[in-house]
Amino acid sequence: MRMKILLVRVPLISCCAMESHSFSYFAEPTGLNYIAQSLCRMNQAVDIYDMFLDPDPTHLLERISEYKPRVVGFSSLILGYDNIELLSGMIKYKFPNIEIAVGGPCTCMPTNTMMAHNQWVDFIIKGEGEVSFAQLCGAIENEALSELSHIDGLAYRRNGRIISNQKRKYIDAESIDFPVDQYRSYKPYMRGSIITTVMGEPPIAFIEASRGCKFKCNFCGVSEPYRKRPAFKVVKEMALLCKTYGVRKFIFADYSFTADQEHAMEICRLIIENGLNVEWGCDTRIDCVTLPLLRLMKRSGCRIIFYGIESFCQKTLNALKKGTTVAGIRKGLENTRKVRIQSLAYMMLGAPGETREMILRNSEILNKCKVDYALWGIVRLFSGTPLFDKAAAIGVIDKRRGQEACMQGNIDHIPVYCDTLTYNEMKQLEMLVIKKFYFRISYVFNRLLSLRDLKELYRLIKQLKYLVVWLTFRRC
After folding, report:
1. Helices (DSSP H) in 286-422: which residue ranges?
2. Cβ neighbours of residue 1 under 8 Å, at least 6 residues apart?
3. What whole-number distance in Å separates Cα of residue 415 and Cα of residue 425?
4. pLDDT tens, 241-259?
5. Per-residue pLDDT for 466 more than 70?
6. How does pLDDT run across 290-325, given as a tens digit for each residue?
7. What b-and-e string marks burial along 5-20, b requiring 16 or more CB atoms within 10 Å of the CB?
8. Backbone angles phi, psi at 393, to 5 degrees
C-alpha cells in the first residue's frame, strides 16, 4: 500500500472574512499543486486540503481521520505560522504518529527559531519543496531516517537537537511541468479577489514562467536564484489548460515575469503564433519593461500588470534597495497606459526615515499617474529579510522579540522600521491614501469609461463595496 500524504494550505483569515475583505489576493494553491505532481511521480498517494476554503480545524482533523496520512505537509506565509502551531498541536494530540512538515514562504524565517518555537513540527523544508519533500517522504516510507542528512534544505530533530541542512541546490527550471492534473477552478471562492475584479470570472489559472528573483530588495525574503522555464513549454501548458479545462485567463505567478525581457517576448510571440485566444496578467518591475515589449504583451493578451512601485521618493527607493528611479517609474507607467494595458501599483509606506509629508506627496503623485488599481502596505520587518537584520543590528528592534512577533502570525504584531511616525499614525495614513485614490471623482469616471461590459461594472461596484466594508472595519 502506498504511503499517504496530505498537503495543507494554512489559512490567513476565514473564507467569510476573506469575501468581505477588500482587495484580497485569493488564488489556487499553485505551489502545493507542483509538489503534489512531484509526489505522484514517485507513486505516492497525495491529497490537497485547502483551509482557505474551509478554515475550521475540526474539519481538518475529520479529513485526517478519514484519509489516514502518514505525513501532513503545511504550506504557509509568515502570516499563518501561528495557525501551524495550533493545527500541528491538535494533530499530534489526536494522531501522535503522524509526521508534520512545514514549507512555503514562511521558511524565509530562521529555521532553528521556527522549530524551537513549535515543538510539534518534525521537519521544515527551506525553499522549493518538489525534490526535498519528495525525498523526505521516501525516507519516512522506507524508515531510512539516516538519509535525512543528505536532503537539501531540510531541518529535523535528532536526540533533542535541531539539525539544519544547508540549502545548496535549486530545481532546473527546464524540468518543471505545470501540474495540469491537479488544476481545479476556484470560481466560487474568488468573489472578493482583486484578480476577479480585473480579469473577470474564473476559471483563472496561475502558471510559472520562471523561478526565483535576480533582484535584491531588502524588505523581501526571496533568495532563490532566477531561472527561466522554456517558453515553448509554458505556452504548451497554457494551450493544454485551454483545451482541457476551458481556461482562457492566466496569471503568471513569477516574482518578475519580464525580468528577462527576451524570454517574456518569446512567450508572447508563441502565444500569438499558436493562436491562443487568452487574457493574462503578471507581476513585474517597472524597470523591466520597454515600449516594444509592452506592445507585444498587449498583442498576446496581457490585460494587467502588477507593478512593485513602492514609492515615488528616490530616498525611500534607495532605502529599500529597489534599484529603480522615480523618472523610470513615471515613464514605465506612461508606456503601460499608452499601449492600453491596465496597471496595479503596489505601494509601501513607513519606510526608514519616511514622514507624513512624504507619504501624502507619494499619494498625490500616484493619483496623477492614472494607475487603474493600487494596494498599500506598511513596511514590515519580516524575520529573514536584510531589512530585518539591519534593524536588529542598529537597535531599531530586538532581534529575538522581532522573530517571535513574526511567528505570532498577526500582521499588527510584526515590527516596523519607521522612527518618524507611530504605528497608529501609519495605519491612519494607510486608510487616508486608499480613500484619496479610490474615491476621487476622476478615478470613478475613468474606470467607468474603461469598462468593457456590464459584468465588469458589477465587479467594480462589488469591489468598492468591499473597500467600504474594509475601511469601516479598520476604523473600529
Report:
1. 291-299, 314-319, 326-338, 356-368, 386-393, 399-407
2. none
3. 14
4. 999 999 999 999 999 999 9
5. no
6. 999 999 999 999 999 999 999 999 999 999 999 999
7. bbbbbbbbeebeebbe
8. -65, -35
The three three-digit cell numbers of residue 148, written as one number: 535525512
If DSSP codes are grouped into helix, strand and coil, which group holds residue 301? coil
Spatial contact of 176 and 228, defined as CB atoms under 8 Å apart = no
Q: Which residues of 236-261 are buried (b: 16+ CB within 10 A; e: fewer)?
A: ebbbebbeeeebbbbbbbbbbbbbbb
Predicted local distance difference test score (pLDDT) of residue 19: 44
Q: Which residue has the cell 499558436?
A: 274
| Nine cell digits for residue 341 | 494595458
- C-alpha cell read off for 234: 509554458
Residue 470 pLDDT greater than 70, yes or no? no
Q: What are the angstrom distances between the C-alpha of 30 and each of 33, 140, 184, 253, 384?
A: 5, 25, 10, 8, 23
Q: What is the DSSP letter of 420?
A: S
Q: Nearest to residue 260, comparing CAs of 291, 240, 285, 277?
A: 285
